[in-house]
Amino acid sequence: SGFEITCMVWDLTSSEANMWIAVGTRDKIVQVLILNTNLQLQAVFSVRLDNTVPKSVTFADNGCVYVFGLYDGNFIKLKGDNGTVTKNTAANCGHAAVNQKRGMFVVDNATSGFTSYRLE
In what order do the strands lie in the sheet with 74-78? Predict the structure, then answer.
């Protein structure tokens, strides 16, 4: 769409040897693509979030895509195959770090320190 990219992540753990790429933009769009073994990009989904500009995106082992909001501090869980929002939580986060191995993420909640959540 030509807007500024605010975040991007890739995942090489796919069993098909494909690289999954997620991109977030300032115009509230999250797009997931696959770079296949022939170096061709294939769109998986593109979704416009209601009020959240993504500042960070990550893939999880459960096949979902997690989005952390830039201005509103929201935490959004998207289905990895079609981008449907399955969870939208106001976490009021300043920064987020994800540990996929432990299935957790930690946010600086900007009011009382750090809070940890489970990736569900």
Answer: 54-59, 65-69, 74-78, 85-90
User: Taking a C-beta distance cutoff of 8 angstroms, is the pair 22, 31 a contact?
Assistant: yes
Residue 55 has pLDDT above 60, yes or no: yes
What does the angle CA 66 – CA 76 – CA 56 come to, to the nearest 5 degrees?
50
Tell which phi-psi region holds residue 73, choosing left (phi > 0), alpha (psi between -120 and 50) or beta: left
- 60: its two tokens: 């999880």
Short-list 100, 109, 117, CA closest to 11: 100
Q: Is pLDDT at 1 greater than 60 in this prediction?
A: no
Burial class (CB in 10 A: 0-12, 13-18, 19+), 53: buried
Give Cβ neighbours of residue 1 (< 8 Å, ≥ 6 apart): 25, 27, 29
Q: pLDDT value at position 27?
A: 94
Model confidence, pTM: 0.82
Take residue 46 and report the two structure tokens written for it: 């593109």
